[in-house]
Design brief:
It contains four helices and six strands; from the N terminus they run αββββββααα. By secondary structure, the chain is an alpha+beta fold.
Amino acid sequence: MKKIVLLITFTVLFANQAFAKRGRIPVCFPCEKLELVKDLPNDENLKEGTDYLNLGYFYKEYSAVWIPAWNTKGTYVLINEDQTVYYEITDAQLTELKTKYNLELADHPLSIWKKIGGKAVYLVIIAFILWSKFSPEKEEEEEETENKTTETNE
């Protein structure tokens, strides 16, 4: 009787095959990103199809777990309103846009988080891991507990 119950139990347990999906760490190495810099006035010269174009910044971002670590190859571009399509512009065209719309543009218009925020977070995480790995507190606690146990035994 025990063998039959054991056989039924194992059959029920292993008949249902559940597959776990492997969780992936979101890593971007590199990802192309578009950032809106300036919403330009609706001008017929800056119209592509039905969309008016705005000034944006195109760059490549290296990130892990949605935290940006590094940005490269940033250039100013014209982007549509949905920020899905970009059009490259030359330095002369950028200068013309600056003078026509009185724009003051930075060399790297990304936010402080995109520039250095991720690096700070990664440094804190690495420092915490190293501190916990090489921290002498565990050894001191073990010595104290050993001393207490030897004192109580005596």
